[in-house]
Amino acid sequence: MLELKPDVVAVTGDHSTPAVYGAHSWHPVPVVLSGKFVRPDNVTSFGETAAVSGGLGRFEACYLINELLSAAGKLQKYGLNVLC
Fold first, then answer.
1. CA torsion angle for 38, 7, 28, 43 (degrees, to 10)?
2. Whole-number Å distance between alpha carbons of 4 and 46
3. Of 11, 10, 62, 61, residue with least CA distance to 37
4. Measured between alpha carbons, how far is 68 from 10 in angstroms, rounded to an integer?
5. How far is CA 10 from CA 22, 30, 46, 72, in A?
6. Could you tell me which residues are beta bridge partners of residue 33?
7. For the chain, what is the radius of gyration of the CA atoms?
């Protein structure tokens, strides 16, 4: 996939499944972004606990497309094209 040289790459999940529940839950899912315009943070692992310390913070999933478009350099100015 990376050989295609995408503007941005995101890895996330469709739901949280805490071991204590053994089932889907309402907890947030982690998101990791990679791209030319992505601001790095200090998180070095991918998971629900590590994501709490990440630079993206917590946001509703409907705003993920805005983050992706911004990270890909496709929006003129963040906030002007809110798609949620």
1. -40
2. 23
3. 10
4. 8
5. 25, 10, 12, 11
6. 10
7. 14
Q: What is the pLDDT of residues 15-45, one digit of tens each?
A: 888 888 888 888 889 999 999 889 999 999 9
Specify the DSSP element, H or E, that contains 31: strand 31-35
pTM of the model: 0.76
Q: Using the structure block, give the residue that is written with the tokens 């002007």.
A: 80
Which tokens hold the place of 49?
């606990």
Three-state DSSP state, 41: coil
Question: Given a cut of 80, is residue 81 above it in pLDDT?
Answer: no
Report the distance separating Cα 15 and Cα 25, nearest Å.
Answer: 7
